[in-house]
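Practice record 12: protein with fe (iii) ion.
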Amino acid sequence: MMMNAAQYEESLRKLDLVVYMFGRRIENPVDDPIIRPSMNAVAKTYEMASVPEFEEVMTATSHLSGEKINRFTHIHQSTEDLIKKTKMGRLLGAHTGCCFQRCVGMDALNALSIVTYDLDKKYGTEYNRRFLKYLTYVQENDLTCDGAMTDPKGDRGLPPHKQPDPDMYLRVVEETEGGIVVRGAKAHQTGAVNSHEIIVMPTIAMREEDKDYAVSFALPSDVKGITYIMGRQSCDTRKVERDLMDTGNPVFGGHEALVVFDDVFVPWERVFLYKEHEFAGPLVERFASYHRQSYACKSGVGDVLIGAAQTIAEYNGVHNASHVKDKIIEMNHLNETLFCGSLACAAEGRREPSGTWCVNTLLANVSKQNVTRFPYEIARLAQDIAGGLMVTLPSAADFTSPEVGKLLEKYYRGNPDVSTKNRFRILRLIENLTLGAAAVGYLTESMHGAGSPQAQRIMIARQAGLPEKQKLAKKLCGI
Ligand code: SF4
Ligand code: FE
């Protein structure tokens, strides 16, 4: 059964998560003013699935049950599915103006659907059966999963087993009859506190010596032994102020957390990779490719930023200046190029032996490489158009102050047809996206999320097919 937004919120209330923020335990994350906007963003993935206009993109038919399910729990069955996934990312980015967090789980499920199948083929294991049973549970209950990959990694020059502290990569510390016991942490976990499930995967390719680190499994997010420590975002405490206008986006946001696993028990039924170290690399690669495609979300957020830039240009009365028009064109050109990359890797996707459709790896990496750059340029142009007032604007409280409010009203008026307050609002939104709380997602996450730029360059180098290209050149000139 698909959940709606209210049911999703209620389902989170039933979780007993151990969450820390600003040095204290947060007993009720759902209603915490700093966390709540991120919950609202995930809730949007539930809400939009029942809007007739968006149903086509937001829902899919389960290949297991034949039932209609939320696309975030779907295993892609065609290039059309992959293309709809790209469109879903843009749609939600545009409707929330932030990271809506639910893609990581979808990408983890799809990567595991491929790799558990390949594992069983080689070893006669039963990972795929376990995985499909788990997937059925996720689809039937319309769950949000956190796909947890990034380990803290300690000294980057050392492999997992050589780290002075052996917990710098998540590992198996004990094997029992009923399952395994794991210890370690996953950093930067998008939407972790808004998730019902945590799906853990290794973070790098591994060798024999690292086999205790080659592990993948899923756990309910509130199982004993898991602790969440919330990351803070630029300007986050504006969310606890009385007037939320200074946040720029009062309703939606994202979050990341450090997730610590302190000797947590995982039953065998939920283990999807265990010491088959040579499958760590393929699992990382699949997840990374899918997740690099998911960054279509940034073109949706880009839509919001472009809309904001055009609006402030009008409010400032400069929208007819040719250089402003040209900057808006440039922003659109860059933003659509991002969308093109995500669409292209979907369109060039292919069927894996498991039946899952996977994106084209080279194009997914090229697409994400663009994402590490273009949002910065789009943000630069938005700031150019917005003007310096975006960062010198007094607070919402000054605006309503009986002493100075009138002065701000008078001196910060632009276009006489637009209220000063609305000019203020749109400037705060641009601030939010380019250097406030949403810049975490729109800029730095664009840089490092789903792998830092160099990770994509390595994949591009591997996949670029240089010998064939050389052959073509040599043939033409008679070598
Ligand atoms: Fe999804 Fe984008 Fe957030 Fe990653 S950054 S979880 S792709 S919305
Ligand atoms: Fe991400």
